[in-house]
Automatic annotation (TrEMBL):
<dbReference type="InterPro" id="IPR027417">
    <property type="entry name" value="P-loop_NTPase"/>
</dbReference>
<protein>
    <submittedName>
        <fullName>Cobalamin biosynthesis protein CobW</fullName>
    </submittedName>
</protein>
<dbReference type="InterPro" id="IPR051927">
    <property type="entry name" value="Zn_Chap_cDPG_Synth"/>
</dbReference>
<dbReference type="Pfam" id="PF07683">
    <property type="entry name" value="CobW_C"/>
</dbReference>
<feature type="domain" description="CobW C-terminal">
    <location>
        <begin position="246"/>
        <end position="337"/>
    </location>
</feature>
<dbReference type="InterPro" id="IPR011629">
    <property type="entry name" value="CobW-like_C"/>
</dbReference>
Amino acid sequence: MPASDRPSSPERPALPVAVLTALEPVLRDALVASLLLDADGVIALRYEVDEHSASLRRIVVAADGVIEDELVELAHPCASCAMREDAVPALARLAERPGVTGILLAPPISADPSVVAGTLRPHQDAWHLAPTVAVASAETAVHDLLGDDTLAERGLQWASGDERSVGEALAAQLEYSDTLVLVGEPEGAGAELIEHLRAPEQRRVDDLYALGAAEVLEGRLDHLLALRRRDARHVEPYGGPTAHGTWTLDLCCERPFHPGRLLENIERLGGGRLRARGRFWVPDRPDSICQWDGAGGQVSIGAVWRAGRDLPTTRLVVTGVEPQDLPRVRDAFGASLLTPQEWSRGLTPWLGTEDALAPWLGARDAAV
């Protein structure tokens, strides 16, 4: 029986473990401190990247002080390795400590909670994962999500090879997490932007100190639901208030992108202060569903899934704050699609044509 399916001991039920992520150490540490003081028996397992040695620093803290503080040497400095090699045995050991009622797991700043939780899930036994929490600044959310800063430029990268943008990292935290804690003006532009990106089932809390430890540690993580929110095949426009000029476009079409025109229009379609997610297909790869993931002027595309019996569809959900970007993006989307006349000819003319998107999508199936 897999560890995640084993029943806990009736004498000692499985201990809840909540993953808390953030981009700003001050906000994360303030939330952790508040939760530690809110309930007896709660401890925090916190990881920091040691900038001098590239090792991880493991810190275990309780309300009354530090329990452990050690440097951890890893074979490879990635999130999944860190969780598998150190967090799994650490959680098992801490779950056996007398008097411990819950654990707050704070991975290094900029960590992707889907990677952290996905790595930990198979190892649940004496502990189980509770719903995840992300804390963010409403004051800096627009710049963080839509600006072109990289994690490396801000000193927030997990390791030297981490090339993600700040917007990519923050979007991953906000889209996966069950509870979003916003610090700052709840009616400002940053909160408005997050409302456009937040799914209806995600809880939003506007006061860092209003969240109690019992709320954080209650229930169990629904990993599949959280992943679905990040899955381009299931992307949905949530909308939200527009007092500060935030807008969301839902761009849908059964027709594929024309490979050549997509390359011509990709800067118009994906450049600028945007958060864009979705799926598309191209006529010379009818068996592939491609992912579109963009934040802060960076766009990542790839052939990620196999299509089923039915042809794929093209759908991008784009959120922005600059009024001039809306018509530009909408027009670029339309210009990148096969025209109705091209579509009426079917897919036969595309058999054996040059694969213009191979550098981005990889080599296509030889049978195509």
